[in-house]
Specification:
656 residues; mainly alpha; two-stranded antiparallel sheet; 27 helices; elongated; disordered N terminus
């Protein structure tokens, strides 16, 4: 039985009857629903596209890979950082493919790279609406879609070039396919669900699998088919998951190392090592991996990035303003929803929906709270669909419950008032940002809660206009969304760049900026960059030791027939130079300079073959620096050339 068929309390009036019909998906749904969801989707798209180019190249690490993919199909397939295919980025390439195809069609620019991310965001909101509506009705779907659209971390990442935008879209798509499978039991929807999770894996490795417990357990417990049929269906879906997950991995690792780039982030030049290590268990148990810290090192509780581990991590100063606004309401919602639907048939779609989104929420919450490895606040965008879906479903079910029991009204009122109080606390962390908004949110939430409770008392109910209860719920929902909406608009209103972006007003990002590093030097947009109109020119020093304009001009003048313009220690240095010149730059040690990708013999061969001439020595990161064997060899065999304040080592074959 679908949730939209559940009976509710007998209406007291024609108005109440109309409200009840709307909640259950009747009353000319096709007209008003299409208008509402269309307007919300367009508003989301406008919000995510507004002033998009102020983010410039956003994360230059991925922007450089996008540029490389527009210059070389080999770089496109492997996800290489440079067009000459020395090393890949430390993630699978699916998210890069989306941006690279756009850049190949429209030319490389900030807009062509970031617009697909914004479109992915609008699609995520739309698909979430369809998934929630099917289980809980159109009003629940609209509330969930709005909550997703105005989650600050979602606004941030759907305007950014990190893999998380496509990851979230694909995971929400998998949940929608699962709801379709739960509703009818058709195997094709399960197979689609598995295929989308596999594609999400090829976007951000094992993070995509966090949703698997929710998907598998929900269908196993509540699928409409008989037990044996459900097992066979899940086995078929498992086969699709294996193929859709592993095809790129198997192809890449089967290619001899001499014919492909080094796998960035791995310790042994294999995708399997990257998946299980740096992008897998290392994130959970604290192994920093080659791109974050020396192999085997422990990154203390994510300090400097995501705050200390523990149950309160997602409510911390570093993360709370990104995702935590509606978590109290979501927690109450899943408890109430499971209680309300406890006695319905096993295959009830609404109860299955609560289990699906509840497990989605719990698994992400636990993993993100206790992950001891590298953890960034923006990862929580994958938690946002679970929070939003539970809020949408819970508000509607608590409203239905309030029509049957005064206790239901008290629960709904307490949930809205408590969430409003929590939103005020989050806003109080940025006292210079709209200082009046927190008290307003709390006051409006309390007034709405009081009206909801008053409407449930027989002595007061007859004195209140009939629309008051429904209006109070609507006002309460709007109140608790004031804080995240304000943070979302503030996110759109300022530029974001670097490896660790943060949503909200600039003052909210201050703690993260004090603890972490941006991962790239500052960039400015210019029309003369060889990367295309609107591309940035990097002509100033910054984090990672970006080269000055005089150094870049010297390298461009003397590169000759060499494949790479210059070799530097890390991608943080290489990316900005690539974007400024449009030429391949070798990041010898990958993302932060610690990948064991370069050896003395390999470097000597590159020099003797004429593919590389110039090397810039930097301090590097853990395991790097001038003490490494490679850099000692460069110093011993190269001719030091000083340009401005920078020393370049000329390794022309004649000097070796």
């Amino acid at each position: 039985m679908s949730a939209t068929a559940h009976p509710i309390a007998p209406p007291r009036s024609r108005f109440s009857h109309r409200v009840a019909a709307i909640l259950q998906g009747r009353l000319g749904e096709s007209g008003w629903v299409r208008l509402s969801v269309g307007a919300l989707t367009m508003a989301t798209l406008v919000l995510y596209l507004w002033g998009l180019d102020r983010n410039g190249w956003a994360n230059t690490y991925y922007a450089a890979a996008v540029q490389a993919g527009t210059q070389s199909w080999k770089a496109f397939f492997f996800g290489s950082l440079d067009a000459a295919n020395y090393i890949t980025v430390d993630k699978p390439p699916a998210s890069l493919w989306l941006m690279e195809l756009s850049a190949r069609i429209f030319g490389l620019s900030s807009w062509s790279m970031l617009a697909p991310e914004a479109i992915a965001g609008a699609l995520t909101v739309l698909i979430l609406f369809f998934a929630v509506r099917r289980a809980f009705g159109p009003v629940a779907g609209l509330v969930a879609a709005a909550a997703m659209a105005f989650t600050p971390v979602a606004v941030l990442m759907f305007r950014y070039n990190n893999p998380d935008a496509l990851l979230t879209l694909l995971l929400v798509g998998s949940a929608w396919a699962m709801v379709r499978a739960l509703d009818g039991g058709r195997t094709r929807w399960l197979l689609l669900c598995a295929g989308l999770v596999g594609l999400a894996f090829n976007t951000k490795d094992l993070q995509a699998y966090i949703v698997l417990p929710a998907l598998v357990l929900t269908y196993f417990l509540f699928g409409p088919r008989r037990f044996g049929a459900r097992i066979l269906q899940l086995l078929a879906a498992g086969a699709v998951l294996v193929v859709s997950t592993g095809w790129w991995l198997v192809i890449v690792d089967a290619i001899p190392a001499a014919y492909r780039p080094y796998i960035g982030g791995s310790t042994d030049n294999s995708v399997v090592n990257l998946v299980l290590g740096y992008n897998g268990l290392g994130r959970i148990f604290g192994q920093g991996g080659p791109s974050g810290a020396p192999s085997g090192a422990v990154v203390g509780g994510g300090a400097g990035f995501g705050g200390a581990t523990g149950l309160l991590r997602l409510f911390s100063t570093e993360i709370g303003g990104q995702i935590a606004w509606l978590i109290p309401l979501a927690v109450v919602s899943v408890g109430v929803g499971l209680w309300v639907h406890r006695s319905l048939p096993r295959a009830d779609l609404a109860r299955a929906g609560y289990v699906l989104w509840g497990l989605w929420f719990v698994t992400h919450f636990v993993v993100f709270s206790f992950a001891s490895g590298i953890f960034h606040p923006y990862y929580t965008v994958a938690l946002a669909p679970g929070v939003a879906a539970l809020v949408g479903a819970g508000v509607v079910d608590m409203w239905k419950l309030s029509g049957r029991s005064p206790l239901g009204s008290v629960i709904l009122a307490a949930a809205l008032a408590g969430t409003g109080w929590w939103g005020a606390q989050l806003l109080a962390r940025t006292p210079t940002f709209l200082p009046w908004l927190g008290p307003l949110e709390l006051a409006v939430a309390i007034v709405a809660a009081a009206a909801i409770v008053a409407a449930s008392w027989p002595a007061l109910r007859r004195w209140l206009p009939d629309p008051v209860p429904a209006a109070a719920v609507a006002v309460g929902v709007v109140a608790v969304m004031l804080g995240p909406a304000a943070y979302s608009v503030a996110t759109v209103g300022r530029s974001s760049s670097g490896a660790i972006p943060s949503a909200g007003p600039a003052v909210a990002a201050a703690p993260g900026l004090r603890n972490g590093f941006t991962g790239q030097p500052p960039v400015r947009l210019g029309s003369t960059a060889s990367g295309g109109a609107g591309g940035p020119q990097v002509r100033a020093g910054g984090v990672g030791g970006a080269l000055g304009s005089d150094v870049i001009a010297y390298l461009e003048q003397h590169q000759g027939e060499a494949t790479w313009l210059v070799a530097v220690q890390s991608a943080n240095e290489a990316a900005s130079i690539e974007l400024a010149t449009g030429r391949p730059v070798m990041a010898m040690g990958g993302f932060s300079g610690t990948d064991p990708a370069m050896t003395v013999d390999k470097l000597a061969q590159l020099v003797l073959s004429g593919k590389l001439r110039y090397v810039v020595i930097s301090g590097g990161g853990p395991g790097g620096g001038s003490s490494s064997a490679v850099q000692q060899w460069v110093i011993a065999n190269g001719t030091a050339v000083t340009v401005g304040s920078t020393t370049i080592y000329d390794l022309a074959p004649s000097t070796i």
